[in-house]
Amino acid sequence: MPDPHYPSVDLDFILNHVNASGKLAHGGIARFGSTTTLVIEGHQAIYKRSTLIRELEPGQICLEQATAVALKFAFLGQLLEWLVTNRNWREGAYIVP
After folding, report:
1. What pTM, to 2 d.p., does this model score?
2. Residue 23: how many CA atoms within 13 Å on its side-chain side?
3. How many beta carbons lie within 10 A of that of residue 46, not counting itself?
4. Which domain of life is it from (predicted)?
């Protein structure tokens, strides 16, 4: 069940930025039902280069997974901008000084 205090993130947004990062292995995205696997290029063991993403709802992933993928593929700034624009959400915005 999604956390009601954090927004979900569109999987298509995440996958577009992952593809644009240039870090994926050839054929590095595999989808099986509600699970998407991302494989980074390299010579390490496959389990060290793999990232699993599980959809909460069709086409939506949780903020925590989106943040982890954005850090690994270097597009955290774009994710934060997307959250403000598309979900009207900003980390810490619920705190009134």
Report:
1. 0.86
2. 18
3. 11
4. Bacteria
